[in-house]
């Protein structure tokens, strides 16, 4: 498990491209036959990917979390961005087509990932500390709460699907969903915002191989950018904006944890005030 310690806005002006990438960009999540996770000390979130091979792939525990099994003190949200999968939780099999989201609560001992067919499943993982156990719930693509956002005229028309949230699947901390850009729209989360009460992570996917997303981070008046490829994730501290523009349409899994689960608790910034 890779450890990434927390940073503050004062660190941003002194960072060059390599340091920005090493602190906020997470690459190589999906390696066949492996679970790869990163521990960010921003709200103690663990994020990563599981890409089962020919054999079922268990979610291991790690010395860094001092737990007998991964979910002893944690909860996890899982979104399948690859081919159909199964996720088995304490012997119960959940069929996960592409785009499905599974919430697994604290206290589940065994989580096992497998391919459901010939294709390569790619399960994005986002885990936070949990104080109690909520039931494991599968949400199929299209079954979440959908919000239509933006406008084709400003190149930011997108469908935001809320899966784990205060009016949907219950969790201790995690708020999670998927946003899909409509064809011809390139901008996500514009106008941009921060939420000092929660960190957030994005996993960009369905980014064409010859395209990139220019992801904007930092305080709104002192921004920097990361050039992000398909199936790469970004860590957005609570004080940072998180917005991006693609060179083609794309989708992303967003997930948050922290002080509250109120999706609309955001501090928006007009683009005219950003620097
Ligand atoms: O398209 C969007 O806008 C988003 O998906 C925004 C994220 O969900 C977010 O930043 C929530 O705080
Ligand atoms: Zn946000």
TrEMBL record:
Keywords: Isomerase, Metal-binding, Zinc. Gene3D superfamilies: Jelly Rolls, pectin degrading enzyme 5-keto 4- deoxyuronate isomerase, domain 1. One of its GO terms (molecular function) is 4-deoxy-L-threo-5-hexosulose-uronate ketol-isomerase activity. Zn(2+) binds at residues 193, 195, 200, 242. It is an enzyme of class 5 (isomerase). Its EC number is 5.3.1.17. InterPro entries: KduI, KduI/IolB_isomerase, KduI_N, RmlC-like_jellyroll, RmlC_Cupin_sf. Its cofactor is Zn(2+). Binds 1 zinc ion per subunit. It comes from the Bacteria. It catalyses: 5-dehydro-4-deoxy-D-glucuronate = 3-deoxy-D-glycero-2,5-hexodiulosonate. Pfam families: KduI (PF04962). Pathway: Glycan metabolism; pectin degradation; 2-dehydro-3-deoxy-D-gluconate from pectin: step 4/5. Belongs to the KduI family. Catalyzes the isomerization of 5-dehydro-4-deoxy-D-glucuronate to 3-deoxy-D-glycero-2,5-hexodiulosonate. This is 4-deoxy-L-threo-5-hexosulose-uronate ketol-isomerase. It comes from Flavimobilis rhizosphaerae.
């Amino acid at each position: 498990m890779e450890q990434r310690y927390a940073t503050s806005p004062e660190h941003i002006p002194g960072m060059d491209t390599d340091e920005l990438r090493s602190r906020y960009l997470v690459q190589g999540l999906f390696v066949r036959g492996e679970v790869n996770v990163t521990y960010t000390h921003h709200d103690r979130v663990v994020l990563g990917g599981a890409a089962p091979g020919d054999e079922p792939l268990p979610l291991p525990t790690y010395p860094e979390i001092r737990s007998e099994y991964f979910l002893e003190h944690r909860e996890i949200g899982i979104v399948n961005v690859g081919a159909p999968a199964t996720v088995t939780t304490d012997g119960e099999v959940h069929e996960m087509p592409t785009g499905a989201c599974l919430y697994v609560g604290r206290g589940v001992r065994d989580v096992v990932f497998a391919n459901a067919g010939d294709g390569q499943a790619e399960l994005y993982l986002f885990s936070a500390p949990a104080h109690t156990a909520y039931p494991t719930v599968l949400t199929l693509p299209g079954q979440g709460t959908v919000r239509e956002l933006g406008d084709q005229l400003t190149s930011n028309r997108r469908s935001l699907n809320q899966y784990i949230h205060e009016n949907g699947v219950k969790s201790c901390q995690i708020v999670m969903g998927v946003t899909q850009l409509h064809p011809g729209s390139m901008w996500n989360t514009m106008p941009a915002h921060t939420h000092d009460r929660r960190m957030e992570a994005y996993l960009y996917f369905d980014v064409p191989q010859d395209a990139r997303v220019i992801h904007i981070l930092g305080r709104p008046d002192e921004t920097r950018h990361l050039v992000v490829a398909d199936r790469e994730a970004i860590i957005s501290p609570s004080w940072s904006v998180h917005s991006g523009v693609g060179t083609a349409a794309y989708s992303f899994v967003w997930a948050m944890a922290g002080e509250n689960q109120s999706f609309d608790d955001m501090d928006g910034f007009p683009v005219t005030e950003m620097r």
